């Protein structure tokens, strides 16, 4: 294992983060959904006050990049008019909720999300900034691989359950109990010391020996895990992706004009409501076999001050050489902001070049050190050699 200091925090709109290309302003859409006017408004604000680039994050948020200090307050005014701003940074930070994008108007997802967000807004919990909730209440769990600490799910028969991340089983709940039990898990996490030290996540807290009280334990087995969603048509909606999750503001505006609304996902894709045909735009990924889907890369240098290389330029060149069943992660440093988990191939930029990790994360032991970007491009087969 390579030692790495956990630095930084998750930015918000009210508490942005300084990066190499200006302020990063994160927007957390309520219910994981933007109506057409909100999506178009964000596109216009990104063009007016940012550098025109919008990130889709693994927490189903949006980030406007390149905002100057003098543009932050006018940007907040615009977000207020769109109904996208919280009353204070603490409320904003607690409202960290992932939502399955595959809900329908007749199910309970929207009501669960609204109740959870309202409950969190009124809570006094001091949760770590990365601590989050997931509402994954379909007959298959599409958010199983996404980061969350408390999960509202269903079993194979459709019964609701609440589960702590890291536990195999959850507790059966009625609809009226679900949000309160989810909040009780978060309260236990804080009271039992989970928010202290370096771990600060539910699964790590449980793995270190913390034991849930009997009132929060159960024998409810969650529904099967779904295959990872890909671009394509889903019922009457269209799922579209973006290379490295970055959306030019003009592309977002055009997409908003053709959709009833946009649902955010943790896969750096958007589900466009009401689209019965795949849209055509050069900045969209619309094919499930697009090589760009095989590569993950953080913003990299010079956009990030801590990155040691231009990650996206390298990942773009290497993506077509990655096997269809593999995943390449190029990280500008050992933090692994774009992807915290393991990948088939992980390249970690250092001052001495790239370290190569196989079937691991940025924090695992490399099998090769000090590779130059040019040498990897010249011989991309080394990525999968001895795979």
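Sequence proposed for the structure above (387 residues):
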């Amino acid at each position: 294992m390579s030692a790495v200091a956990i630095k930084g925090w998750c930015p918000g709109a009210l508490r942005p983060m300084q990066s190499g290309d200006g302020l990063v302003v994160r927007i957390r859409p309520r219910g994981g959904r933007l109506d057409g006017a909100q999506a178009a408004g964000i596109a216009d604000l990104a063009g007016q006050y940012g550098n025109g680039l919008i990130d889709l994050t693994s927490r189903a948020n949006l980030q406007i990049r390149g905002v100057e200090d003098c543009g932050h307050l006018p940007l907040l005014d615009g977000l207020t008019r769109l109904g996208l701003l919280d009353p204070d940074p603490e409320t904003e930070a607690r409202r960290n909720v992932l939502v399955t994008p595959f809900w329908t108007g007749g199910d309970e997802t929207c009501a669960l999300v609204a109740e959870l967000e309202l409950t969190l807004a009124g809570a006094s919990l001091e949760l770590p900034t990365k601590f989050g909730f997931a509402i994954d209440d379909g007959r298959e769990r599409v958010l199983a691989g996404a980061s969350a600490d408390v999960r509202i799910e269903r079993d194979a028969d459709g019964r609701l359950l609440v589960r702590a991340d890291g536990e195999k089983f959850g507790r059966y709940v009625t609809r009226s109990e679900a949000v309160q039990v989810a909040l009780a898990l978060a309260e236990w996490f804080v009271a039992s010391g989970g928010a202290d030290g370096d771990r600060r996540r539910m699964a790590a807290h449980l793995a270190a020996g913390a034991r849930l009280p009997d009132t929060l334990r159960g024998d409810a087995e969650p529904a099967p895990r779904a295959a990872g969603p890909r671009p394509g048509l889903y019922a009457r909606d269209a799922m579209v992706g973006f290379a490295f999750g970055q959306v030019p503001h003009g592309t977002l505006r055009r997409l908003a004009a053709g959709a009833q609304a946009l649902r955010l996902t943790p896969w750096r894709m958007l589900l466009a409501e009401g689209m019965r045909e795949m849209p055509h735009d050069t900045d969209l990924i619309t094919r499930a076999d697009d090589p760009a889907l095989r590569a993950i890369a953080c913003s990299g240098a010079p956009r990030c001050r801590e990155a040691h290389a231009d990650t996206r330029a390298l990942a773009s060149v290497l993506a077509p050489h990655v096997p269809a069943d593999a995943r390449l992660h190029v990280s500008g440093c050992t933090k692994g902001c774009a992807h915290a988990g393991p990948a088939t191939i992980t390249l970690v930029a250092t001052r001495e070049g790239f370290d190569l990790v196989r079937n691991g994360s940025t924090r695992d032991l490399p099998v090769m050190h000090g590779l130059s970007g040019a040498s990897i491009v010249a011989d991309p087969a080394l990525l999968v050699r001895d795979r």
